[in-house]
Write a structure and sequence with these properties.
Layout: H1 12-21, E1 23-26, H2 32-48, E2 58-59, H3 66-72, H4 75-85, E3 89-99, E4 107-110, E5 125-129, E6 141-142, E7 154-160, E8 163-167, H5 176-179, E9 181-182, E10 190-193, E11 199-201, E12 210-219, E13 228-230, E14 237-239, E15 243-246
Antiparallel strand pairs: 1-10, 2-3, 3-12, 3-15, 4-11, 5-10, 5-12, 6-9, 6-11, 7-8, 13-14
Length: 265
């Protein structure tokens, strides 16, 4: 089965637009055959999900499901990442963001990078739609160009589990609704966004699921911090692994090129 649509491309014009706006939406990424296959696989994951793991919090899934890692390793996707951060590439996170119908939380306006304990040359966050996504079923919105404004001050927030802070509302534009751009995507399309662009998403008020897969990459010379995730199948903890997707293990950390290959340690 072919995974990436032949019409997907990321060249100088797409890269320039991404750098200027802080995001980019692709008309084509997955083939129709891949979309159908992955939709079935995700629904199987949801059916096997342990009750302790919310459907929006299935994190580190590329370390559990080889088919998800195979998407992250697609050469055309890595070509895009290399264009952004250079030839030595680590995959450090994946996240199935599954919002069930008539549920889910409103995610407040925030920037990604300030929440993380790693730093370096981040690629864009990769946001792949397995379902049609619109504002009714929880499409993310971004503020174009606002990735260039630095780190915004935050205030305490308890609007969603895992988000204990949000951008101070007074820091956002008065015409927020006119400026924000929602990720309106068909199944198989993809969006990318800078790790510093402010973004949010509403709850899912529709009768439909919102199935989205996120990947995060970073250049291999980054400062890398640990984290613990929970296996979506049994709720058991496991540790984050940094996987060398392309290029050199520049810090000589003994990184594997797949979570499924045997360790040489």
């Amino acid at each position: 089965m072919q995974t990436v649509d032949d019409r997907f491309q990321y060249g100088p014009s797409e890269h320039a637009a991404y750098q200027d706006r802080g995001y980019y939406l692709f008309d084509h990424f997955l083939t129709p055959e891949a979309v159908a296959d992955y939709q079935a696989r995700v629904r199987d994951m949801l059916a096997r999900r342990h009750e302790s793991v919310p459907p929006e919090m299935m994190i580190g899934v590329h370390q559990i499901e080889p088919w998800i890692f195979d998407i992250a390793a697609q050469p055309k996707l890595l070509d895009m990442i290399e264009h952004q951060i250079g030839p030595d590439i680590l995959l450090w996170a994946s996240h199935m963001l599954c919002k069930p119908p008539h549920t889910g939380d409103a995610v407040p306006w925030h920037q990604d990078a300030p929440y993380w304990n790693i730093s370096g040359r981040f690629s864009a966050g990769v946001w792949i739609a397995f379902d049609d996504v619109d504002e009714q079923n929880g499409a993310m919105s971004v503020l174009p160009g606002w990735h260039k404004k630095g780190t915004f001050p935050v205030q305490d927030s308890h609007s969603i589990k895992g988000f204990h802070s949000e951008i101070v509302p007074a820091q956002l534009p008065d015409d927020l609704d006119q400026r924000r751009v929602p990720y309106i995507l068909n199944a198989g399309q993809m969006g990318i966004h800078d790790v510093m662009i402010p973004h949010n998403s509403p709850p899912n008020t529709s009768d439909r699921w919102r199935l989205v897969l996120v990947f995060r990459y970073i250049a291999a010379d980054a400062q890398l911090g640990p984290n613990t995730y929970h296996n979506y199948k049994n709720g058991q903890p496991f540790e984050r692994e940094f996987t060398l997707m392309r290029g050199r293990d520049v810090q000589n950390l003994g990184l594997r090129r797949s979570p499924f290959e045997k360790s040489t340690a």
